[in-house]
Amino acid sequence: MVILLLVLAAPVEAEICWGKVCDASAARIGLSSVCCSGPGHGECTSFNHCTCKPGYEGKECATRDYCGYANATPVCYYNCSPRDSPSTKSYGICSNETTPSLKFDDQYCICSQPGWTGTCCVQYQPGSLSSSALDFGNVTVGATASPQAPVLLANTMGAANLRIQSITLSGSSDFTYTTNCTTNAELLTGRNCSFSFSFSPSATGYQSATLAVNVTANVNKTAFGVHYQILNATLTGTGIREVSSVLVDPNTPTTVFAGVDGAGIYRSTNSGSSWTAATIPSVSTRIKALVIKNGDSTKLFAATYGGGVYKSTDSGASWTACTDTGLGSSNILSLVADSTGKLYAGTDAGVYTSSDSCASWSALNSGLPS
Fold it and tell me: Residue 30 contacts by C-beta under 8 Å, 6 or more apart in sequence?
């Protein structure tokens, strides 16, 4: 009877959580203010409703939560097992599982099983890429970057085969790849396949692309099912224009020529204040050197990488390909002329000379390294 009277005398604002008076003001009349299942588990926030503290869940916050948040940071609270089968399967150990404590902030998971990762070892990663980022640096427009080491896709699991569901490359089309990884095929345990990337910028400026490899692995058909993972690798590079040579007309110093590696030949008639592009085929825009004939500034020559030698007979307004008979390589790296107009070209195949305005060439490689 006494207990009944005390309950009836409880303040009107007192709230009940599953048969317990939880409002703090109830303590003034001798009633317990402990809410839900125990101290520190939760608090009564409305009639018959418990708001659980981190690490607890359920109607009365009586069930231990296996993973949660403390101060917006994910932490391990009880153990590191996936929720779908916490009592039978564990993929890691909590850093202080041996000494349970209500101070959850210093707890984290040490993942102990292959493929499982994350704060509470609930993220499954059956595969891995040997690199998640490749930077090709500065590359001349029209050229191809030096190759980088292939990126390996590996099956990191100890028992399950890895199935490659899809491979996509999104972003700049200046990046391309070749691979021996096959979609809709399985990568056996301990095996890997590879991706080789190339970068050939078509314009100046920063470029990027992302490789996405979607993989799956079936660890345990009855308990855990198929696990999905997307592996990403970011590709970056910058297209640049290199002015490889500058030439001034000795007879008309206000006329200046610029050879741009990857963009062709430009001419200025006002000492470089403004420029006009000269006509030259796009396949021969990698200009390496410019030469003007001594005593005749209407005749110019241009060394191109990949297109041989070009000449102009109208002071650089238009250009045509030389015959280049006998020239051992179309990759010209340097070009000079002596006082008589004789040309000397340095190529991938050695040194060559021409006495007939680039119509024919003779090798000068005796004594040079082979």
Answer: 6
Give pLDDT tens digits for 28-83: 555 444 556 666 677 777 666 777 776 667 777 776 655 555 555 555 655 565 44
Question: Which residues fall within 8 angstroms of residue 231, CB to CB, at 6 or more apart?
Answer: 127, 128, 129, 153, 212, 213, 215
Which is nearest to 215 in space by CA: 148, 274, 159, 168?
A: 168
Instruction: Determine contact, residues 237/135, Cβ cutoff 8 Å.
Output: yes
Of 205, 240, 275, which residue is a domain's last?
240
> Residue 26 corresponds to which amino acid?
A
CB-CB neighbours of 343 under 10 Å = 23
Query: 38 Cβ partners below 8 Å, 6+ apart?
Result: 62
Q: How far is CA 78 from CA 51, 102, 108, 124, in A?
A: 19, 10, 10, 19
Q: How do residues 157-167 score in pLDDT, each as one tens digit?
A: 655 678 888 99
Token readout for 313 is 């007979």
Q: Are residues 174 and 263 in the same domain?
A: no
pLDDT of 300 higher than 70: yes
CA distance 132 to 169: 14
Q: Does some domain include residue 370?
A: no
Q: Please name the residues in contact with 143: beta carbons below 8 A apart, sequence gap of 6 or more.
A: 200, 201, 261, 262, 286
Distance in angstroms (rounded) separating the CA atoms of residues 84 and 15:
34
pLDDT digits (tens, 9 = 90+) for 114-154: 566 666 665 667 788 999 999 999 888 878 888 899 999 98
β pairing state of 205-220 and 162-171: antiparallel
Q: Are residues 77 and 97 in the same domain?
A: yes
Q: Which of 65, 90, 106 is the last residue of a domain?
A: 65
In this structure, how many other beta carbons lie within 10 angstroms of the beta carbon of residue 356?
Answer: 13
Closest Cα partner for 64 from 89, 109, 29, 101? 101
Beta carbons of 54 and 68 less than 8 angstroms apart: yes
Instruction: With H, G, I as helix, E, B as strand and everything else as coil, classify residue 8.
Output: helix
154-199 confidence digits (pLDDT tens): 887 655 678 888 999 999 999 999 999 999 888 887 788 999 999 9
